Amino acid sequence: ACAFPEQVEAIRRLASSPGGDADLVMWSRFLSPAYSTVLRRLLDLGDERIGIMDEAGIDLQVLSMTSPGVQLFDRDTATAMAADTNDQLADAVSRYPNRYAALASFAPQDPERAAKEIDRAINTLKLNGLIVNSQRKRLRSKGFTRARPVQRVRSAWNFERHAPSSSAFCTRSV
Is there a contact between 7 and 65 (Cβ–Cβ < 8 Å)? Predict the structure, then answer.
């Protein structure tokens, strides 16, 4: 898992507002001085992470945006954050092509824009697959009572054409 500056700042704003979301409770700890090492390591996609991988004997790491992903945010924020995150992931993979692969984020809150971002992430950025960091309860609170947003995204992107298994989210081998 990894985090991105824009994600951390958006979570920082949400964590300061009232609410009992479990991800925000977890992140309130990560944002405290006691967890500064954890946050620094989540944000690092360079030499420190590679060094830790080397020390642990890890040859390849699959990067993805850490929970809560983009699903916690409104459609526009989530869509922009997913695109920015995917750009940063693609940059990290291009800097360390033998050490990193990556799973793209997308905002299921907006299936049509999610389909476009999936297409860009897989076909232009050449990321290895997709990740949804979400719970059904959270998506329902965003207005998806029974709409099944991930299935709507699959339909909008014609996912079955790209991946033979309807439950598969890895589209390119690592």
Answer: yes
